[in-house]
Amino acid sequence: MTDPSPASASTSTGPLKAVSLRELALEELRTRIVLGRIGPGEVRSVISLAEELGVSITPVREAVMDLANRGMVEVIRNRGFRVPVLSEHDLDEIFRIRTLLEAPAMADVVQVLDGAPVPRFRQRAEEITAAAREGDLATFLDKDRQFHLGLLELLGNGRLVTMVAQLRDQARMQGLQKLAEQGELTRSGEEHIALVDAIEAGEGERAVELMRSHLAHSRGIWAGRTESVG
């Protein structure tokens, strides 16, 4: 959903295996925060999280500092960290900036691909839709992140990818289970498929409008409600 901020998110719930403990801890914490498993304003200690993840304190502390640099957490001296509480204004700012960055970029993606098929992105779009239908929120988030950041990576602009990744991380998802049951997440997944159709057809203007409409819809989803589009 790559950069200094990997597109793939860990979805494990048990102890982490020793591969790259710092990165694994970071991805696990990022996923928990974005999905609301660590709630806004909730103070968590590094020691308790290290115990939950089955690793030493050092990689968790380093992961927390990385997340603090991305604006995802606030470090509390001698206590741990907390997730900032986002206002409606905060979410509006995040999605307005994402729209300014991602929507016009779709015209460039269409130009770069020049009508070439993109089976990898069609597969991601179908995986997003399937996860939405099944109410698998962690997979929905992971595949959505891979899809959006992957399209931007095609432009070869690492700073653009990093900025959008950070904006995604700074938002929070609320009430997703309810929206999944109402079919809102499935509709969002299908919007990815329509975007792939436009890209493969070489329709730059349509791709731009579809991304703009999708992000307006996403603005509501990430706030735990439907969002009118149009």
Structural class: mainly alpha
Classify the beta-strand content into a percent band.
under 5%
Mean pLDDT level: 84
Q: What order do the strands of the largest sheet run in, or round the barrel if closed?
A: 1-3-2
Distance between the termini: 25 Å
Cα radius of gyration in angstroms: 18 Å
* Main sheet overview: 3 strands, antiparallel
Number of helices: 10
The portion of residues assigned to helices is 55-70%
General shape: elongated
Number of strands: 3
Enumerate the spans where pLDDT stays under 50 for 5 or more consecutive residues: 1-13, 226-230
SSE arrangement, N to C: HEHHEEHHHHHHH
Provide an overview of this structure.
There is one protein chain. With about 230 residues, the chain is mostly helical. It is about 65% helix and about 5% strand. It has ten helices and three strands. It has a three-stranded antiparallel beta sheet with strand order 1-3-2. Helix 2 packs across helix 3 and helix 4 packs antiparallel against helix 10.
Structure characteristics:
mainly alpha; 10 helices; about 65% helix
Set down the secondary structure blueprint.
Blueprint: H1 21-34, E1 43-44, H2 46-53, H3 57-69, E2 74-76, E3 80-82, H4 88-113, H5 119-134, H6 137-153, H7 158-170, H8 176-181, H9 184-200, H10 204-221
Helix pairs in contact: 1-3, 2-3, 4-7, 4-10, 5-6, 5-9, 6-7, 9-10
Summarize the structure.
This protein has ten helices and three strands; from the N terminus they run αβααββααααααα.
